[in-house]
Design brief:
Elements: H1 7-15, H2 19-36, H3 42-48, H4 57-66, E1 105-108, E2 111-115, E3 118-127, E4 133-139, H5 144-158, E5 163-166, H6 175-183, E6 187-190, H7 200-212, H8 224-240, H9 253-266
Parallel strand pairs: 1-5, 5-6
Antiparallel strand pairs: 1-3, 2-3, 3-4
Helix pairs in contact: 5-6
Length: 267
């Protein structure tokens, strides 16, 4: 009793498991979640765990930090170049990427991948309502036909949107793309030159695609056809199964869309 500690309490303390031992099962579970979903944030990782195993945000963040499960974001680099002589469209979005229903605001952009047999370019089209990729196009060049094909695919699959928003890249100010937008009776919107925040939501999607899929692949050793197939599979997974924190209940994009149409039918 020299230290005012009872013998029973002392030996109970010796037998008490350490923090690492107590958290070992949770660490294993979080590593499995990270393996399945490399781009998930801390909250999405928590939501993926069984209800009885979910820790607080602070505890999960600490465990992820201490076990190397946090991912550092890479700074995106735009590849589209503005045409100084082209007349830009007004910014109808003004960084408000919310939509109360589908087909009100679509976003689009272009990104590139370096493959074994040359570069590959992807132009996705995202619906602001549920973050679904409603259409996309992949080609070996980044001419205006790339973004025109992506928009056409989206319209053929989901119907036309009210607004299509992009940056001021020459592909989107081209006569071909503007004619396609006009023929579909869609309003064209553009952000400011050099401001990625004006198209931040589609930029975020591209960053997620690269971090979760492309940065984990040996692209310089893969053919264009192999990368095409990977992108096709990943976008299907993204739309149908991947949790999205901007959707209520972290629903996958097309899960939210399905619920919307179901509620419309009931109404």
């Amino acid at each position: 009793m020299a230290l005012s500690v009872r013998r029973e309490g002392y030996y109970a303390w010796l037998l008490r498991p350490t923090r690492e031992e107590r958290d070992s099962k949770l660490v294993s579970a979080l590593k499995e979640v990270r393996e399945r979903h490399p781009a998930y944030g801390v909250q999405s990782m928590i939501d993926e765990l069984p209800q009885t195993q979910r820790p607080s945000y602070g505890k999960c963040y600490r465990i992820c930090r201490d076990n190397g499960l946090l991912w550092r974001r890479r700074k995106p680099r735009g590849i589209t170049k503005a045409d100084p002589e082209a007349q830009a469209a007004d910014d109808l979005i003004n960084r408000d990427f919310r939509a109360e229903m589908p087909n009100r605001k679509w976003l689009t952009d272009i990104t590139q991948m370096k493959c074994k047999d040359g570069k590959l370019y992807l132009c996705p089209v995202m619906d602001c309502y549920d973050a679904a990729i409603v259409g996309y196009s992949i080609d070996t060049n980044m001419k205006s036909q790339l973004c025109t094909a992506a928009l056409t695919n989206a319209v053929n699959l989901y119907g036309k949107t009210a607004i299509i928003h992009s940056d001021r890249g020459s592909q989107f100010t081209s006569h071909l793309f503007r004619e396609t937008v006009s023929n579909r009776e869609i309003s064209q919107s553009m952000g400011r030159t050099g401001s990625c925040y004006d198209n931040a939501r589609i930029e975020s999607f591209i960053a997620t695609l690269k971090k979760e899929l492309l940065y984990r692949q040996p692209l310089p050793t893969m053919s264009r056809d192999e990368v095409r197939a990977l992108i096709f599979e990943w976008i299907s997974y993204y739309n149908l199964r991947r949790r999205h924190t901007s959707n209520e209940g972290n629903m996958p994009p097309l899960g939210k869309r399905k619920l919307f149409h179901r509620n419309q039918e009931v109404a």
